[in-house]
Specification:
pyruvate-formate lyase- activating enzyme; 19 helices; 9-stranded mixed beta sheet; globular; 3 domains; binds cobalamin
Length: 497
Amino acid sequence: MKDTVMLIALYNQRALGVRYLAEALKKNGYKVITVFFKDFNSISPSKVSEKEMQLLVELINKTEPSFIGLSVMSSLYLESVYLVNECIRKNFNLPVVWGGVYASLFPGHALEYADYVIRGEGEEAMVELFDTLREGKDPAQLQNLAYKDSDGQLVVNDVRPIVDVDELGFPSVGDQGHYYIHDDKITAGDPQMGGFTYELTASRGCPFKCSYCSSINLRRIYKGKGKYVRFRSVDSVMAELNQAKKALPHLKVIHFWDEIFSNEAGWVEEFSQRYPREIGIPFRVWGHPLMINHRIISNLVEAGLYQIVVGIQSGSPRIRKEVFHRNESQEEIIKCSQVLAECKVPKVIYDFMIHHPFESLEELKETYRLCLELKPPFELQIHGLHFLPGTDIVQMALDAGYYSCEEMNAKMYGSLKEQFESWYWDVSASENIDEITCWTSMIFLTQFPSLRTMLKKMESNLEHNKGLNNIYRLQLIMNKVLKFRNLAQKAILVVKP
Ligand code: B12
């Protein structure tokens, strides 16, 4: 047995990337301690507390790792990452390595805190780094590595060629060596074990280039290194799921976390034939309007697809194409909704980003109109635009003069609380705030087909400018709908296994 390595995942008990790394390290003879630090919470996550850090220090003392790896996936949690990093630095003299999406895109910033950064996919690179360090050799030439040389200069090595995901084994799951720190408590064991969901990816990489997403930036790191969007074999996916079925006593639902679920001819057919026979558990996927057709969806529904989340983001063709860099037309989106309705996907969710500085009132109305054309039943997931560091849309907003550099940095690097509170572009100062409120409520209400006749009447009132007192009526309806929905949700929670 080689040394012990501690891997820390923040705000993410499933942490696929960290589980893949743990597997790679174990296969190469390391003992791995994985710490899931804090619960995933997409609404109001709390900062790491003193007590939680003290629990981490005690765990490090008890398990005596030789290396520590911090997974820094998202910039939204940096405030807590800094605290955890500082706590380790203060109490231990151990090499600290950062990896994950944020560290990969901003190695220079990460190296203000870490000794080393591994960019991109880390399975092979991390094993190589720890092997080199324990042999007392110089890691300077290792692929994927970024570090500061003896003069304090940043060195960013090239990444290695793309790997075949089938060769990486399955993400590590199980109680051995897993700890969960949350709510000022530490629990030995894998939080995944008690859950009724299992998450996996059947592919890596995203074929699209949306301006608000970091995926395109990750793809740029791998330019010239092989085919970035890769599918695993169906054999490998089935074997992982069979293993999960055996390991998780309460398993009821499978979540595919592929950025966009496969539309490969042949792959979908093989998967759909085998999945019900070999796995037979309802599953959900993320989809894209341009990758949805009858063949794929009818096969998947037959195989057990119970939920699909499809990003549409805006009803305005200009916003989609020129601002978000998405190429689907109104017709293609409407067609996609028809396919999903005809194939009877039990739960369809459309995702929209509204209330951002690029959007005019007219474009907000276009979102309402598109939603009315979407074939029910569906639910809407409506949120604001979050500016993620390094994404193309950040520069676009700066060029357009919507924010100064200082304002943008404050948005992207604010505290945990500030970042989660700034989901929406602050429209309260807009001169047409009443209209924005009305049209936003109307967008929300399009997901209830029985209200559509009423909505059309309101729309015409609003367009003829006699409708601003509609705002009160809309608010009343919204309150009723929300109350009903909350009750329904409570009822679902009660009957849920
Ligand atoms: C699935 C997914 C989720 C899942 C879970 C993610 C997971 N991996 O467990 C859920 C739904 C929970 C989720 C949540 C969020 N997500 Co998300 N998510 C993704 C998605 C689509 C795929 C991630 C994935 O599973 N990849 C496969 C695994 C194997 O790769 P990986 O996690 O990157 O890990 C590899 C390397 O990064 C590296 N590595 C990772 N950690 C470490 C640590 C060390 C020490 C080393 C050496 C290497 C290393 O090695 C790993 C193995 O190769 C990505 C898009 C993308 N391309 O990354 C967005 C993405 C990561 N998410 C993003 C965001 C913003 C979020 C949320 C903040 C959303 C929210 N509002 O709550 C949260 C944050 C969660 C968190 N704790 O950080 C952004 C992050 C960009 C940024 N600058 O912040 C991304 C890039 C998408 C985007 N919009 O740009 N997400």
